Structures
1.
Amino acid sequence: MEQFGTITATASVLPEKIITNEDLSKMMDTSDEWIASRTGIRQRRCVTDQETSDLCYLVAEKLLKKRNTAASELDFIIVATMSPDYATPSVAVQVQGKIGAMTAIAFDISAACSGFVYALSLAEKLIRCGSKKGLVIGGETLSKLIDWSDRTTAVLFGDGAGGVLLEAGNEQKLLAEHLAADGTRGTSLTAGYHHNASPIYTEDSEGSFYLKMVGRDIFDFAVRDVAKNIKEIIKDEPVDYLLLHQANLRIIEKIARKVKVPQEKFLTNMDKYGNTSAASIPILLDEAVTSGRITLGKKQKVVFTGYGGGLTWGSILMEL
Ligand code: ACO
């Protein structure tokens, strides 16, 4: 019998340490006024002693507890992240080991701020191909990728993790999707370059470990390509909520005007957490579920839209 992926639980974990704009203005030449007016961000969370895998593990535990599910029931764990602890083992396989999901396959995907949407799309295909249950988690510790002396990027990002439990059901819940990528624009946002220190390697390495972004290019890309992508997904169908990657409030306001959907349908929380890349959409979803705005099983139509490094972007329309 045909089966489809259904989101049956949501969870999120934020580090305790809060860094306000005021705190940042004591560390670099910036101000609450500049940051809040340009981005909508007022504070962010930063890890003091946790890795990305620690945050994702806590999300996984919460998800299993919420549905009273044993780790042994999981078929897959996918983590979307651009700030893994190691190149290997992946964050997902560390989570698999810690929760003891020994029959689950586990792997990370790297699609920057589109990571959760990419991972959710892929996970839903795994369910259509026969998997019964799995975790899709977005988790980041971007604080380690940031040059804390660069005010143009340091004020934008935060740490956190969120995720969903995806289970097989008979009803089609993923109604439409449109994912995209454009590697020719990849230099607009780079992070995590590792110099090749091998004695065999002869070139001078040019990349930077720290996150570098041509902010204006990403802004324009988001307003143009991402708005078009959302229009293609929703067509003229009414939707209940749109959960976009939380990079910048001004981007969301401009997209709302372009797609002609009332601003209040676009949920936001970047004021509290900044840009948490692959974690931003599942954190936002979990908050919406916790606050009662979204009730799983109530058949609300929700759009998830990611966009960022790669460049990558994409939207999924789901009935929750
Ligand atoms: N505090 C004070 N002044 C600052 C700061 C700061 N933190 N940062 C930059 N400035 C200054 C600049 O130096 C510049 O000064 P100048 O005019 O004297 O040269 C001035 O403010 C304007 O700088 P811009 O970079 O032009 O500012 P802009 O209005 O474009 O806003 C921003 C920058 C917020 C980064 C915006 O471009 C943006 O949001 N871009 C999109 C980012 C995004 O969406 N990323 C998502 C993907 S992230 C991912 O995939 C991981």
2.
Amino acid sequence: MSDQPAISIRNLVKRYAGSGGEPGKLALEGVSFDVPEGGIFGLLGPNGAGKSTIINILAGLVKKTEGSVSIWGFDIDRDLRNAKRAIGIVPQEVVFDPFFTPFEVLENQAGLYGVRKELRRSMELLRAVHLEDKAKAYSRTLSGGMRRRLLIAKALVHTPPVLVLDEPTAGVDVELRRQLWELVREMNAGGMTIVLTTHYLEEAEELCERIAIINHGQLITNQPTAELVGMAREKIVRITVDKDLAGPPMEDAFLKAEVLAPRTLEITYDRDRLSAGQVLALIQQHGYAIADVTTREPDLEDVFVSLTSQAAK
Ligand code: ADP
Ligand code: MG
């Protein structure tokens, strides 16, 4: 492996054109990150965060406003042709001509990339995505899951070292999601660098060695998955007390204490260090009686909130 990243993105800005005098949407506000070679990299964020905008810039479908992007060492402004050859993109939307067979879909795509007949590997790709027996079926007869797998094969006809999948499992059932994860792992084991976007934390956690989180067009974090998941080791307990709070009860053992209403507070704590019972006991030591308690597991949003508040410090 070389030290050169598979993808390098610097200060990427995208402002979509406005209409009717309205200013355009600023979808990316200066995003920078590298995708290391050889791993499975997750680009995570809620709907509207800017994930597809990044992917579509990589695909050459959306023109960036500012910044630079290199794919496999090729700058997309200076060497688009080589950059495009280095990457395969599976778009978020499943669309293709229903009248071609999967084999024809791959042959046509290979033609578009100028892959010579003797170098084409349509059957091999269909085998790789477990669609060999559907090679001659009409694409319109394929199930949703088969269509997604065909799109993956289609992205691979020019044998790119980098494969990008935009929300590969949005709206697919659990069984197919497992199949797609397996396929991604197989391809990565074969040496391919994989980038996938998702808004499922669980999916990123399961598959990706490294996760970048994007929200409102800004990169919030980019770190090994194990570290990020560690942040979700926090637990949250919401407590209602018997009288108005003088302020958030401060304890070293609390990660955060927040007053939500005159008699309601939320305590964030590390579940490896404290139990909910210990949290309640500490509150009682501050002179409050407990009227009501609810706990919740932190979700992706909590990770976002804790990361953005850290960034603001
Ligand atoms: P994600 O893939 O993370 O859900 P997108 O990159 O699709 O997010 O969208 C980011 C933001 O840019 C959203 O506010 C979206 O409405 C806006 N946007 C996306 N595509 C266009 C477009 N073609 N024209 C105008 N705004 C767009
Ligand atoms: Mg998207």
